[in-house]
Each structure stands twice: as C-alpha cells, then as structure tokens.
Amino acid sequence: MLHVWEIVVRLRPVLFVAAFAFLALSLPSQILELYLINIETVDVDMTKITVLTFLQQNLGIAISIVTGLFAMLMLWLGSLHLLCLAPGHESWNGPRRWLANGLLISIPLSIPLGIVLGLNTLRTNIAQIAPDNAALSQGLDLYMWATAATAVLSAVVLAALSLPRFERRARWANWAFSHVSVTVGALTFLVLTLAMAHWPTGVPWALGTLGIIFLSFSTLAFLLTWFSQIYQRTGWPVTVILSALAFIFSLLGWNNNHEVKFALSDTPAPRVEAAFPDWLMARADKDWYREQAKPYPVYVVAAEGGGMYAAYHAASWLSKIQDKCPNFAQHVFAINSVSGGSLGSGVFTALASRLAPNSEHQDCSGTGKQFSDASKVFFANDLLAPLVGSTLFPDFLQRVVPMPIAAFDRAAALEETFAVAWDQTAATLGPEAKPNAFRAPIQKTWSVNGAAPALMPLTTSVTSGAQVMLGPIWFNATNSSRHLMEMLCPPFGTADVQVSLASAVSLSARFPWMTPAGWFDADAAAKKCPHKESTGRVYLADGGFYENSGLEAAIGISKWMRAAFESRDQQARMAEVSAAFPQGIDIRIITIFTVDTMANSYMKSEAERTYDHPGELDSPIATMLAGRVARTRAVYEAMLSDRYLPFASAGSPAHGYGYTIRGSNVVHEGNALVHQVPLDGTKFFLPLGWRLSKRSIATISDNADAASDLALDFVTYELEGRDTVLLKAAHWRN
Fold first, then answer.
1. Of the four, 526, 568, 617, 690, which is 20 to 30 A from 285 by CA?
2. How far is CA 128 from CA 133, 170, 478, 700, 705, in A?
3. How far does Cα 562 stand from its chain's mean position?
4. For residues 371 and 348, is the Cβ–Cβ distance under 8 A?
5. What angle do CA 556, 560, 565 make, to 5 degrees?
C-alpha cells in the first residue's frame, strides 16, 4: 500500500507537465501579449451574441478553448491512469484517498490558473500597458473572470468525475491508454509533426500559438504517462533512456539539423574603401548639393536587438522618415543590425530595394505612408506560431533521432515565415517582377547604383565569440570582427558567400534557446575555395552575444568610409569624388535602440542602483545577462565621445558637438554626429518574442520622445540642405 509521498512520486510525470504549463502560461511576456491579442480579436457586443456565434466569429479563440480543455482532460486521464497502476489503490482511504482525489482535481487546473495569474499580471499593470484605454481594461477583466469561472466550473466537473470509486474510474483510464488508444495517439502526434514540417506556416497559423501550446501539453502528458506505464509493467525507464539519448545525440551533434544553406559566388564582395566612392558617384541627387554649396549627407544606421518590438521600432522609424523624405534611402550607405533590429532593417531594405528609386533631389514634403503601411502589414503577421509549432513538434521529435532532418529545423520554419509574410506585404504593393526578397540572396538587395542600403546583419561566432558580419560589402568593424566569407572561403577576394535575406536575418536573431545556433558546412566550402582547408563547421548565434546595439560596427564602417579618402591606392578616384562633392561628405550615425529597465539601471550611478542579491545558482546567469546589457550601453556611451567618432566630414577635420536632449523620456546626452532614436521600454509593455498586438504596434508607431523627434528633424534638415545650428542650439550642452 502506497504512503502519501509515494502518491506524489507516482504522479511526477503529470506534475511536471502541470508545473511547466502553469509557469509557461503565467510568466513570459510573449504569452501575456497573446492574451492582449485575444482581447483585441473579440469585437462583438457580448449582450447580443450567443456562445456559438461568438466561437464562429472568433475561430482562433475557439481553437484555443477546445485544445485547452483537451489538455486538461489529458492531464486528468494521465493522473488517473498513473494512480490506477498502483497496487492496492482500491482500498485507499484517509489521507491517501484525499491526496489522490485532490491531485486529480488540481493537476488539470494548472492550465486555467496559469492563465488567470498571467491575466492578473496584465490587470495590475494596465496603467502602463494601455493608459486611459477603458475598452482594453474591460476586455481584460472579462477575459480574467471568464477564465476564473472556467476554472471553478472545471473544478466542479473534475470533482464529480474524481470522487466515484476507483473501479469505475479505472475503466476510463484503461481505455485511454489501451493499445488501440496509444497507437492512435502516437499516430496523431506523428501526423501533426509531419504536417507542421510540410506546411510550416499554414498549419501553425490555423491552430494559433496558444492552440499549439495546449496541444503540446496534451502530447507531453500523454507520452510521459505512456512511458511511465511501460516502466511500471516492464521496468524499462523509457523517459530516462530517451532523455539520455537526446542529450548524447545533442552533445555529439548527430541530431543538429540547423544547417544554413549557402552558395559561393565567383564575384567577391567589394571592400568598403572601393564600394563607398563608387556608391557616392552614383548618387542621382549629388548635383543639387553641389549647386547649393552644401555637404552631402550620408548615414549609417545601427539597429539594436530586442525581438519583434525592436524589429518594428527600426522598420517603423525608417519608414516614417522615408515617407517624409523620398531621398532618404539613397543617402543610407549601410545598416548594421542585431537580432530583432535585423528583421526590421531587412524589411525596410527590401521595401527600399523595390520602391525607392535613386532619383534627383526631392524636398521632405512627402505626405504618403506607403513604407509605413507596408511595414505594418508585415509585422501584423503572426511570426510566432510557426516557430512555436516547429519547436514543440518537428524539432522536438528531432531530439531523439540521431540524424539531422532539415525539414524539422525550427529556424527554417521561422525563415519561411519571414518569406511568406513578405509575400503578403508585397501583394499590397502590386505585381512584383523580382523574386521574393527574403528568399533571394542578401546581396541582391543592394547595388552601387541603387537606393537601398547595404544591410549588414551581425552575428556571433560560437567558437571564438567574435563578431561575424553578413552582407554585400566587406570591412573589419573591430580587431575581432570577421566577415562570413573570411571564415568559409579565405583569403579575402577568393569568393563571396551568399545566404538568403531570411537566413541572414535569422542568424542575427538566434536568441537562446528558442532559436538555435546555425551552422555552415565549411568542408563543402573547402572543395570550392582553393586556399581553404577543411575545418568542419562554422557555428553562428545571436549577434547580441557580442554587442547588441550594432553601434560598434557602425562606427567601424564609418571610419572605413572616411579612410577611403585617405587611401593612397585610390587617390585619382578620390580626386574625382572630391570634385563632385566640393563641400565634403557629412557622415552621420542613426542609432535605433530601446532603453529597458536593465539598461536604465546601468546608466544610473552606483548609488541609484538596487540589488536583489541573487543566489548561488542564478548569479552566474544574472551576471552574464547584465554584462551583455552593460557592454551594449558602454558602447553607446562611448560613442558620444569625439575621440570615438572621427568621421564627421570626409576630407575635413571631425568634430561632434555635444548637447542635452531636453524633454526626452530617456535620460542621455546627445552628439551632433549621432542621431538617436530611442524607444522608452520603461514606459511600455514590450514583449520579447515574434508577435505584436495592435496596441504594441500603435505604441511603437506613435513613439513620442524628444530624442526621436529631434533625430527626425536633424535628418530632414540635412537632406534639405538647411542649417541645423539653431536646432542644435536649442539643445546645447552647457
């Protein structure tokens, strides 16, 4: 006869799933954003609609409800079956009986209770999330109380099912895990896995992220219960064996299916020193600045990482200035981007490649919203569900298969989502003659004669920790920086490594552990590169591991751009350029970034910082995360120093004038060489993930900050050849 504690041990598989479900549904910011999206989806008068009509009009929510209830049922059946496998369970009484019945009722309730806790977190922070939004507040209250009522009703139903004698319940449990049911369940899991692998966007979008998560809870409860049943009857610890195999296969790399496809081009990527002068001479509006006796403005953009919110922040601001100033894109030589910033910059670059001509001068009097509207279309897509679906099903199965299956790669599913989202965006712009920009090589988005900037996503080498750049041009940002082609096909100039825009963006945003490090087959490259030795694989991870702002690389390329004017090898060419630009070339950096609570902590003095004294287990992780942010902010603060910015005007002395950005929500200083576009993450709820609610899109689009507005004014003045002295004087540093 089991002791009380032995009942808990017997239920450990479903207790694990219940604890995981409770935490997953209550804590992550992306899950909380999904609840807000559900509230936005419901646009009906609840007093004039039936339950059936409501579910028909809100199919995604209906699927979430059905799959959530199914997950609760599987947790209950799994718990019941594990208890019924215990010898002598028919005679339990007293504490054992009460504990068994209590766990039978409470384990399935982990799902609605986790949702209630998450909704309560939103409810207590509604003033920050959506101030003065009564409709959202009411919807949140309704959502929370409806879920709480579901939990209470479920508890009553579960109690009614759990209280009868074990003999009656045993029949249900035996049926649920009979040979026929187990076969059907296993086949269903395989069919769903193969469907998500074959249709990486269609199936996940049909089910929705929450629906996929609930199905994964059901699957996990079913599998762990089945494995426990096998152990009870045969003594084989299937769960331990599979976990050990998954660990061994992963350690040996046998199941690493995250290979990145590439092609080697015979035409190497040009060096910055050669590409920049040619790019300048191809500018269609250069004569206007010569006639006006004004320096020619050139911009390098640094787009910081931060998931979907950083992506849309970058795309939104760049689109806003492009809609206002139609010549803006042709003045942006390069964009150095990290993680989510790479996606936003990639969307803008793809739009500029299609919509922005390299044209004669136009004033900043644009009133259209073509770029802004197209960016909203792209980021209104659900980029999360395909990633979650592939992670929890195909790539989950891959962990126990000792050979890589490319179709099961969750990073590939995310890349396909980028491409499909671009198809939907491009459809709003009319027929497109070019192939899908995200499926084409990243090199195709840029040309010397075009208006689109050279997108340079930044990644991090897993082996050396060095910064690795992708993109159509070559330069060394720092002594430790490398271009991908140097790693796969040295020496420089032998060939160029071409990866799709989707893969380049994805590699820059391989944030652990949701998106895995990608690898290149260096042996395959060695067969085509005459001076390349076989080195196995090259692994790349999220660019934020090295430096999350992209500023260091932006400063580096700006220095190389200036160095082109001092190159002895190109004196004749640069004399031609200098004649075409008699007033010089003014190089500016535009940095697009977010200040969150952790970053704000770094920017405060030691006396202002607070410490929560992390324990022995979490202190290493806390230190690594804080150090990552600190390095980013250290680069950010260093850039305001003139000695780090010797690139103001090519061919003339460099000097940046300091000023204070008055009225900004973010406390920081300014420099005339750097235009700052901040998003104050301490004031808004910004989820770290791959889906945004309409509220988040509107919040980022309407980002009201004096620094952001000042950057917009600076760029407008410079493109129109207007004097910025008074604009600077209004913010002069005393």
1. 568
2. 11, 50, 40, 14, 16
3. 33
4. yes
5. 150
Please give the biggest Cα pair distance in the chain: 98
| Whole-Å CA distances, 70 to 73, 75, 215 | 5, 9, 8
- Give the span between the Cα atoms of 73 and 171, in whole angstroms: 15
Comparing CA positions, the residue from 335, 324, 333, 375 lying closest to residue 358 is 333
ω into residue 491 within 30 of 0, thus cis?
yes
Residue-wise burial string across 680-693, b where 16 or more C-beta atoms lie within 10 A, e elsewhere? bbebbbbbbbbbbb
pLDDT for 687: 85
Please spell the DSSP secondary structure of 209-253, one letter per residue: HHHHHHHHHHHHHHHHHHHHHHHHHH---HHHHHHHHHHHHHHHT
Residues in the chain: 734
How far are the Cα atoms of 26, 125, 363, 534 from residue 22, in angstroms, in the given order?
6, 20, 55, 48
Euclidean distance between CA atoms 704 and 137, whole angstroms: 23
Taking CA 625 as the corner, what is the angle to CA 621 and CA 628, rounded to the nearest 5 degrees?
Answer: 140
Name the β-bridge partners of 542: 459
Tokens of 494: 């032998």
Residues of the chain whose pLDDT is less than 50? 1, 598-599, 602, 604-608, 646-655, 667, 733-734
The pLDDT, as a whole number, for residue 532 is: 58
Six token digits for residue 198 = 């074959």
Q: Which two tokens stand for residue 640?
A: 């305001």
What does DSSP assign to residue 306? -
| Rg of the chain in Å (alpha carbons) | 29
Closest CA to 700 of 284, 395, 316, 215: 316
State the Cα–Cα distance between residues 70 and 232, nearest whole angstrom: 25
Q: How far apart are CA 366 and CA 361, in angstroms?
A: 13
Distance from chain centroid for Cα 169: 46
